[in-house]
């Protein structure tokens, strides 16, 4: 094992075991290196790597701390990684969305507030047939984000937020090339919203599946 990898594993073990907890300050570099049997250079590299994925927070002049380890914070790294996807993997990202998002939509049925439902309704009502593709895609992203946030599951929300990037280009492409993309998207959004208002989790799940599957089916037919 490379010395930097070994250092990362040792710091990880301290956090997983509870020896270091969220918000804790790490011991001084010299002390921690001696405690873990590491060189100060390998420890420094490990700290740098762990700070990039939001496990550690290096505060200049103050020290290094364990972050909150909040799922939303940790999964920010996912958004960065998926930005490197290739076009030929977009269908795979859509397939993952089709698995996760209907489940989140069903969960939101019992939790989403009437005020949030009204906000989403007003957002849809503001769109018309002359809506630009950019406006439609922005609305689509915001619509689904609002619902998923209401699921009450921060991990699911962060995962889906990270997965939305790779499918954005496909949504824009569909909006530019499919004749009824705007009306179809709005129809499916309204059906999802109606199911949420009825607190019908299975209907909400089904309509969310149809909505994502329609994009997936269209993309599959054009590739």
Automatic annotation (TrEMBL):
PANTHER family: TRANSCRIPTIONAL REGULATOR, GNTR FAMILY, UXU OPERON TRANSCRIPTIONAL REGULATOR. It comes from Streptomyces demainii. One of its GO terms (molecular function) is DNA binding. This is DNA-binding FadR family transcriptional regulator. Keywords: DNA-binding, Transcription, Transcription regulation. Residues 1-69 form the HTH gntR-type domain. It comes from the Bacteria. Pfam families: FCD, GntR. The keyword DNA-binding applies. The keyword RNA-binding does not apply. PROSITE patterns: HTH_GNTR.
